[in-house]
Amino acid sequence: MHSYGFDLSDPVFTIGPWQVSCQLLTLENIYGLDPAHTTLQPEGDGWRLDCARLSWAGQQEHAPGELHATFTPESPSRLRVKVQASAPHKLKAVKLLLRGLPVLQVLDMLDSPADVPPGGAIQRYPNPLRLPVLFARRPDDRLIGIRNEDPHVRAKRFAVFQEQGGPFKDSYTLECIHEQDARWFDTRIDVPDWIVEADAAVEPFREEQLRFNEAHLGWLPWEQRADVPAWARQIRLCLTLHGMHWSGYVFNTYAEMLDIIRFVAARIDGRHILAYLPGWEGRYYWQYGDFRPEPRLGGEAGFEVLCREARALGVHVMPMFGATCANAWFPNFHEFGPSSHMKTATRNVFHGNQPDWDTGRAHDTGWQAWLNPGAPAWQAELTRQILGLADRYGFDAAFLDCAEVWVNDPDFNVRDGLAQLNARLRADHPDMLVTAEDWWDGTLGVFPIFQQTSTWRQVPEWAGRYARFIGHICDGDPATNSTGVHEAGYSPYVRLPDTPAYIPTLTFVHGTLDAARAEIESVITAARNGDKRQEA
Q: What pLDDT does 5 receive?
């Protein structure tokens, strides 16, 4: 985490138990408040901060601009903070700084504390932080809780670090940063309310955020979701059937996938099986943007047989589609790609992950363009390809890879684009199940099922109220720990937790069915018993 080698000399205000500063970030600089033009006055039970001139360069220079903030107590230990500001240049973000704090630990999404490293810690929302909520633990075990009530799911960041200079040297500072939607950058900004709790209890404090999201982000309990087809509520087991690796290595042909499906469907009713197909379209990732059955896996005829025979068994087939990336070297890319690149707020082209596909150790994936599903051309093309294939082959589920990727794109909102894509797919095919990789609170109301690993980025218990989770393709198979088409290579096989939030998942690469027969039978039995519990 970078910092300045001098003290910004921001004025500090005592607000109840807090020492507070504010900073404004424009597209061209960082501004503080000019203490000579700033007042803090009582207002009702709280305080009002008014600043009529800004400073920059550590108070060496001044600029026109304003900041107005109210701090309203909601309990003896809680403040609601409202901030409005203006500046001479377009504003990107506003910081609220809590200063003079003792040594802090930061809680992760599963509420486990971690020490703040010497260089500081940054928690970013929406990725990888799933809610705009942070808990920081003091040495006396009391928790600071901070959350933000933003109905537009805009970027938030939290930074915790030890001050290296100035009057607060050696104490800790906690930054709360709200970033405006890049489509709306202006010289004025209204910051959604921060709620700051000096003595927070984790579950009640987070529960308030969940209730806010239910009211403003369209969240519904799993049992009430309208985007879950009736057939999908009967799914008890997911089969991850790996097709072709980026390098062209074949794990399972369509015929071999069908053999696995038949084996499993002989042991559990096919209507309870979801067959998930990563790498079905050919070279994984490489083929993104031009989805079609792969000749080396069995071609159009083989894929048609797979879908038809699976359907006859009651099994639901779910091919994988890249929602946010495509091969820029393909002939069709010019039709939708150039106008759809993902961009950061300041228009840097976003490159996303860059797997070491060729093991050249350079992570050089210039062919792999990251596209915004909110961009009209890419959204229309992806919709056309998925629906065209669904019509032809009769599958009724689609998995959107990399749907968790989010950037503050100044042209098209990524989260809104995913919601529009989902709506377009289901408008044409109302009985289609649309699922996605990973999740955060902005997408939890958009998709009902997500792919999630059992070993990292685990799902907190509360998320299971709203969605279900299948195993991630980076999870190893039960025979060799192979992750199939995924770039991880090998990862220890671990069953998903035995909780209602998870749908048991079995991964199949080449030879898994024969080499891990006992574990496969055991998982199928557990899924079958889980089905009986569901029906009881």
A: 95
Q: Which of 158, 188, 216 lies at the terminal end of a domain, its last residue?
A: 216
Q: What is the spatial distance between Cα 202 and Cα 199, in angstroms, rounded to a whole number?
A: 10
300 and 258 co-located in one domain: yes
Structure token pair of residue 181 = 């939607």
Helices (H) and strands (E) in the chain, counts: 8, 25
Assign residue 446 the CATH number of its domain. 3.20.20.80
Residue 107 domain-assigned (yes or no): yes
We report the CATH number of the domain holding residue 115 as: 2.60.40
Percentage helix, strand, coil for the chain under 3-state DSSP, each rounded to 5:
25, 35, 45
3 state DSSP class of 462: helix
Which residue range(s) make up the domain with 26? Answer: 13-216
Write down the pLDDT at residue 458.
Answer: 75
400 and 481, same domain (yes or no): yes
In 3D space, the residue among 37, 115, 154 whose CA is nearest the CA of residue 407 turns out to be 154
pLDDT tens digits along 132-147: 999 999 999 999 999 9
Total number of residues shown for the chain: 536
Residue 393: alpha-carbon gap to chain centroid: 30
pLDDT of residue 531: 54
The stretch 418-445 carries a mean pLDDT of 96
DSSP for residue 122: E
What percentage of the chain carries pLDDT values higher than 70? 98
Measure the CA–CA gap between 524 and 536, rounded to whole angstroms. 18
Same domain for 418 and 481: yes
Can you give the pLDDT at residue 535? 37
Number of folded domains that form the chain: 2
| Backbone φ, ψ for residue 386 (5° rounding) | -65, -50
Omega of the bond leading into 497 within 30 degrees of 0 (cis) = no
The angle formed by the CA atoms of residues 169, 175 and 178, to the nearest 5 degrees, is 155
Mean of all residue pLDDT scores within the chain = 96
- Between 299-312 and 376-393, two packed helices, what is the crossing angle to 10 degrees? 70
126 shares its domain with 253: no
Min mean pLDDT across 38-42, 250-254, 293-297, 457-461 is at 457-461
State whether 178 and 262 are in the same domain. Answer: no
Q: Are residues 19 and 106 in the same domain?
A: yes
Residues 497 and 400 in one domain: yes
Taking the CA atoms of 309, 294, 292 and 423 in sequence, report the sign of the dihedral they define: positive
The two tokens of residue 378 are 């890419």
Give the angle 296-299-301 at the CA atoms, nearest 5°: 145
Let me know if residue 358 belongs to a domain.
Answer: no
The model's pLDDT over 310-363, given as tens digits with 9 standing for 90+, comes to 999 999 999 999 999 999 999 999 999 999 999 999 999 999 999 999 999 999
> Is 454 inside a domain boundary?
yes
CA-based radius of gyration for the chain: 25
Cα 270 to Cα 263: distance, rounded to the nearest angstrom: 10
In Å, what is the CA distance from 275 to each residue of 2, 219, 386?
46, 27, 17
Residue 532 has pLDDT above 60, yes or no: no
Q: Residue 159 is encoded by which pair of tokens?
A: 């930074």
